[in-house]
Request: fold
Amino acid sequence: MAMTMEELITIMDSVGQNGSSQLNLRSEDLQTKRVVKRLPMLKNALKKKSKLLLETEIALPFDPQTGKAEPDGFNPSNKYRPPFSATTVALALKRLADTSEILKSTLMKRAGVTNWDTSDYEHFTKDDWVIFDKYRVPRIFSLTVTSIKIPAMQGSDSNNLFARDYAVSVKRDPEGNVVGEMPVFLAANKFFRDRAYEKVKDYEDSIADANPPVTEDERKKAKSDIYRENPVQDDHPANFVRLFELPLGNDFKLKDDVLSGASEEIFKEYEVISRYKAAIRNSISKYVDKSWSVCDHNFDFWELDMTCPTTGDDTTMRGKAEIGQKTAFERPVPVDSNNYSNEAVENFTIAFRKYIDSDPKVENKVRASMRVSVLDEEAERRLVAALPTVIDMDNDKFITQEVVKNNAEFIKLIFGDEGDELVEEIEAGVSEREEGALDSDAAKADAKTYDLTDDDFSDGPDDLVTGGEAELQSLDLSIEA
Reply:
């Protein structure tokens, strides 16, 4: 029997949910480590083939009770998105629409239909799919992080091919400016960004009279490479997805018992977590834009067939990284294709839906599985101690007088008395450093035109876990220190 809206609300109340955008993981309770099962990371391996199911959810940009976007309630920035399967939520809304003319008319108008039978709210129909399709999105879990790539901070035994993410909380005004004191990591980001601007200006001067002329693509790549030298990134979202990984044979078929033997309990064995990396994101976008509509058969999940390369070096960090980069997430052979019996497929989809509906506190589990430490006071102290190892104040010509003047407090914090002397020399007009052409606002705007937080910068292979296991087991994951 389908859930009613009252039943959904009752369950959400019991687990601290209210139907709002809880999936942005801003609740202190959701970000605090408890005794919660941790999901394994999706792993790459030579010759591996898997079918991945990425759960979908319903996200309404308006209040279902009023049919309107409410400034202080549910709206496009705070969508109504209960933590249940897409089908369960759709049927509950269908039941509500059967008695609420406001909701029914709103949904029909937005779907562009003139007729919708809501009397059977126990079964999900093709007409229901049309009504709710535009609100069906991938369930993504986001955390605000900074990415830091400083070997001295990560430790000698860490994976230094990639930056390490740290969860952060930054208060900003409506214009995006930091409210209150600027955190150390943002001050560091600004310093390196300003230095990069000076280096970019030097590069542009060097190619002004180049023969043959430098192409626009070459210029953009060179500038991007310079800005990507910044070892401390701005705050940005790190996105994760929960996947259900099913083993595939060489013929890309599932074993019969995977479908026919599916149950709520067995889906626990299939659960994994992954960064919402570009390769997965690009494939999912084909469901969103309907390019893969021929494969879109189940309202509660989207399918991907993952194929890892057959050759490579799986004994080194770099080799594993290359295997991950060559792993493809391809158009699938759907689970309800002619390869499987209707009875087995029905059993599988019902079990999947029941499992999703039984797990309304999924955010706790996902947050504990992200393996992202908090940039707390201790981590910030390690950052301050490590920064001098990646700043050559004596010999770096791009740390100009303008860079020092615009980052004086940061330099004094990191270099102490030496930093004080450096700032005083410049203020007294006796510094031998180049004056520089820095425009901090222009540097900020210029850096934003380049994607400095993509997979190549901060996404290592998911099975390369950053941070010691002991540290992660005992970690306080609450953002607010």
Residues 26-30, 456-461, 463-481 have pLDDT under 50 and may be disordered. The chain is about 40% helix and 10% strand.
